[in-house]
Give the backbone structure.
Amino acid sequence: MGFGTSATHIILFIAGIILASSVAYTLSVTTGKIAIGIEEKGKVMMNHLSGDIEIINDPLRIPLKSGKYVFYVKNTGERNLLFTNSTVDVLIDGSIVPGTEITIVNPSSGVLGVSETGEIRVNTTLSSGDHRLKIVVDGISDTMTFRV
């Protein structure tokens, strides 16, 4: 009876150690994956926060070139921004302007460098009065109220 009880206790002890090791390993792997996810999210947020734009037009004098309204966007952030028809969105009075009605004029083939100013020409008809403009460049936006 003594040997059987000891053997049972040893088997239960070993099973408990194996179970505890499995749980510890699972928690370790899960914690590692969470840490990697947080690090990647932090990089994305840092990249987003280091970017900034500013619409630098005079709100009372929006220029017209060849019948298109011209808006100037300056990269005031700390990183280069993609500046193409696929990365620029223009909203006027809450309505998105189709990409076919936007012409991007930029200094460096598709990239708006730090402190550089890009030009966006918008082919649209606006009534007289105040309008609200929102420009989104590479996920970063600025708004301005202007008068025509």
Summary: The CA atoms of residues 21 and 140 lie 47 Å apart.
